[in-house]
Amino acid sequence: MIKKLNESYTVKLLCEVFEVHRSNYKYWAKRRQTIQPKRIEEMTLVKSLFNESHGSAGARTISTIAMTRGWPLSRYRAGRLMKALQLHSCQQRKHAYKKATQVHVEIPNHLDRQFNVSAPNQVWCGDVTYIWTGKRWSYLANASGYFLTLCKR
Prior knowledge:
alpha+beta; 7 helices
C-alpha cells in the first residue's frame, strides 16, 4: 500500500499513518524478489504429498515420506512450507458403530445355503453399502432377484 501511495505522499508520512517503522519498510523494499526454483520444487512436493495423504499428513509425516523418497526436507521446513501453502492436516474420525439396545429376533434361514435356483424371482438377496457423506455415514441398500440366477456356477 505504501509503495502505491509513495508517488503522492512521502514515505515518512505513510509509515506514520500505517504505523510501520521506516527501516522495516526500506528493508522490505530492498529485499530480493527473485523466484527460487528450489522453494517451488519443495512447495510442489509438499502439496503433492499432502494430497496423497488426503489431507491427513502433518509436517512430520510429510518430511518422513520426503526423506524416504530421497528429498532432504526437515519437519520444520515442511511445516513452514505447509503454512505458506495454507495446508492444515485433519485426521478423520474413526467410524463408531452404535451398540444395539435391543436383541434382534432370530430370523429363520429359509434358503439354508441352497443357492441353485431354477428361475428368476424365486430367491432375493440384498447388500448394504456404507457411504461417508462428509458429516455422517449413510446406508445404501440394494436388493436383486436375479443375482442368484446370474451368479450360478
